[in-house]
Amino acid sequence: GNAPPGVDPEAFSWFQAVDADRSGYISVKELKQALVNSNWSTFNDETCLLMINMFDKTRSGRIDVYGFSALLRFIQQWKNLFQQYDRDQSGSISFNELQQAFSQMGYNLSPQFSQLLLARYAQRSSNPSIQLDRFIQICMQLQSTTDAFREKDMGLVGNVRLSYEDFLTMVVTRMM
Question: What rounded mean pLDDT belongs to the chain?
Fold first, then answer.
């Protein structure tokens, strides 16, 4: 069949290939099997779930062809940004590249914080680096928590006072 109106024909044919059970929807499992990093590892479950939730307008845990088409555009934008920050074209982002990326995105984060992210999200190696899927996940979570922080930081002073439950509410509504 032909692509529905507003859906890129390439996205439509990829949707049909990814929709393994022919349900007309893409699940987290199907999405995970369709997306790979530069080292041929599949995208991790957390990133796939975050992206499905972002484009799942019905809150069913899956996306239709329109959501999938929008998701592919979203991933391509992140991939372009990722490649811009991957200065040595290694297919992954090193500590220094991550620091530069944060700075260029307007985040004033310490080297210790970038090191913490590498420890949490990079594959274990002597020279840890971040793959595309984890880069998308980190940036989505950073943007979301920054938005939540800014809602509380009305004067844009960089500090807020909040109760423990307010903090937990911010985390649960933005991250889970």
Answer: 90
